[in-house]
């Protein structure tokens, strides 16, 4: 098997693996939100630990994908991915494009959910500060 073919297979396998990991992350982000709403701190610690285990895996596979694309002689972005897909036979090309679309959609959904969770956390923090009377006086803040 040629080195180029091995790299393309590695790229496709990574896309499928990341799709599954992002599905897991999305479910964990949902659980994280519920834990925050319910103020279930013990469960939140567990969920956050699971999320923390996923982030390095996603980061590493993203780096590997960029390196693979560059070694294939294409740009390390969506355009490069589509160029690699154009080398595939029609059936595999369609499957690869669908998997890539699913991955990019999952990434976008996770980013959106993570932002929503951050907003919730910020609101909860502000409420607690006000409730406990710990809010700083407005004169001391820019």
Alpha carbon gap, first and last residue: 63 Å
> What is the name of the CATH architecture?
Up-down Bundle
Instruction: Tell me, briefly, the overall form.
Output: elongated
Helix count from the secondary structure assignment: 4
Radius of gyration over all CA atoms, rounded: 21 Å
Low-confidence stretches: none
Number of domain units: 1
CATH first level: Mainly Alpha
List the helices and strands and how they pair.
Layout: H1 3-38, H2 41-71, H3 78-86, H4 90-131
Helix pairs in contact: 1-2, 1-4, 3-4
Structure description:
The protein has 142 residues and is an all-alpha fold. The chain has helices spanning 3-38, 41-71, 78-86, 90-131.
In short:
The protein has 142 residues and is mainly α. The chain has one domain (3-140): Methane Monooxygenase Hydroxylase, Chain G, domain 1 (Up-down Bundle), CATH 1.20.58. The chain has helices at residues 3-38, 41-71, 78-86, 90-131.
List keywords for this structure.
single chain, 142 residues, mainly alpha, Methane Monooxygenase Hydroxylase, Chain G, domain 1, 4 helices, 83% helix, 0% strand, elongated
